[in-house]
Design a protein that fits this description.
By secondary structure, the chain is of the alpha/beta class. It has a domain of 95 residues: Protein of unknown function UPF0759 (TIM Barrel, Alpha-Beta Barrel). The strands form two sheets. A three-stranded parallel beta sheet has the order 1-2-3. Strands 4-5 form a two-stranded parallel ribbon. Strand 4, helix 4 and strand 5 form a beta-alpha-beta unit. It starts with 8 loop residues before the first strand and ends in a 10-residue tail after the last helix.
Length: 146
Amino acid sequence: MQEENIAFCNIGQTRIGETLEGTEHATAPFAYLRLHGRSKEWFTAKNRDARYDYLYSSESLQKVKGKIEKMASTADMIFVAANNHPRGQAAANAVELRSLLSSDKVSASEILMKTYPVLVEFAIPKRVADLVAVVDKRKLLPRPRI
């Protein structure tokens, strides 16, 4: 994969049987990590929402941070996609992870912070309209440096 600059898709998912342990391969100029959650009902869930209904713990996100930092030692860019979404868990985990990577509090919507009080440690509440205004003005939100 490295010879062809093909990025390996690292997956954070429930480990059952012979499935891969969370990987941290960087095989191209960019690395890719998907966070699917670690629900024990992953393979028996009756629907998509039940399968992805998961909130990563702060301890788990510290491990994810370590994987991202390891990938960043060889890749120029890291793409992280969170897909644990039925109740906004992906957004909450993204806010926390972004804060961990930047070592600073980041902006998050008031609604998200009320839903996930753990975010008070990682984020500064903003009205959704204020967050949208930044995007509408085509200003990029600050990205964490690692």
